[in-house]
Structures are given as C-alpha cells and as structure tokens.
Amino acid sequence: MTPNFPKQLIAPLSAFDNKIELTLSEQGMICDCNIPTGDLFGYRRGASAWGHISELMPELAAIKLMRDGQINPRLRFLSHIGHRFQLISLGGKLFDVKFFIRAIENQGQRYLRAMIFPFEVGFNAVGSNG
C-alpha cells in the first residue's frame, strides 16, 4: 500500500475493504459515504450538503462525470486503465489513488457510486512493476 495513505484505511480485512466509497449525484455532489470515509474526512451521514467530488479529487473538476445520460466515456476509460488520480485530504495532503465509478438507482433516483482505492506501490497502468 502507499505508505502515506491514511492509517484508518491501511489494514483491511480484504482488498475490497480498503476503499473510500462515495455516493454522488449525477452532478458530482457527495450525497453519502461509507463510515470510514465519513470519519476520515469529517462528513456526517445524513448531512444535506458535503460538496463536489472535485473538492477531494481536483482532477475531476475538469472532467464531466456524465455525458448524454451515461458516465463520461473518458472517465470510464481512465478508471479502467488504472489511471493514477490524486485525492486531497482535509489537511491538504495528496494521495495517489485508483478511482472507479458506476451508475446506480435507488427508489427511482439515479446516483453514481465512486470507489477510491490507494494506489499500490510498484503498480502501473499496464500491470508491471516499475
């Protein structure tokens, strides 16, 4: 794991437990998060407004999340190839992360589910050590 990734997320039970999980509106506003994420970033479950995903991941300010009612193909491609995104903590520290996004529906409302994983040391987009 990246040695600087927040200690709360370093020792997972499995690789899938070591993630930040956010529920976003189609416009990118954070609506909900998993409990460790809320603790890590100071979000309160049920809060009415948490801000835009780009406040945590500045690169996403320049990329539309949705295009023609679907997840932006460029964003889907970047996450598929293992693009190294940066996550910024409340204290301003940057972490390299992998970002995955998918559309979900709940009670007739469409949302986006974002999953953010620490970027493993020695991994690159083609999967070789480097």
Write the layout of secondary structure elements.
Layout: E1 20-24, E2 30-33, H1 35-41, E3 66-67, E4 70-71, H2 73-80, E5 85-88, E6 94-106, E7 109-118
Antiparallel strand pairs: 1-2, 1-7, 3-4, 5-6, 6-7
Structure description:
The chain has two helices and seven strands; from the N terminus they run ββαββαβββ. It has helices spanning 35-41, 73-80; strands spanning 20-24, 30-33, 66-67, 70-71, 85-88, 94-106, 109-118. The strands form two sheets. It has a five-stranded antiparallel β-sheet. It has a two-stranded antiparallel ribbon with strand order 3-4. Strand 5 and strand 6 form a beta hairpin. The longest helix has 8 residues, at 73-80. It is globular, with a radius of gyration of 14 Å. The two termini are 14 Å apart. Mean pLDDT is 76; it is low at 1-13 and 121-130.
Report the mean per-residue pLDDT as an integer.
76
**Runs with pLDDT <50, length 5+?**
1-13, 121-130
Please give the number of β-strands: 7
Class of secondary structure makeup? mainly beta
Shape type: globular
What's the gist of this structure?
The chain is mainly beta and 130 residues long.
List key phrases describing it:
single chain; 130 residues; mainly beta; five-stranded antiparallel sheet; two-stranded antiparallel sheet; 7 strands; 31% strand; globular; disordered N terminus
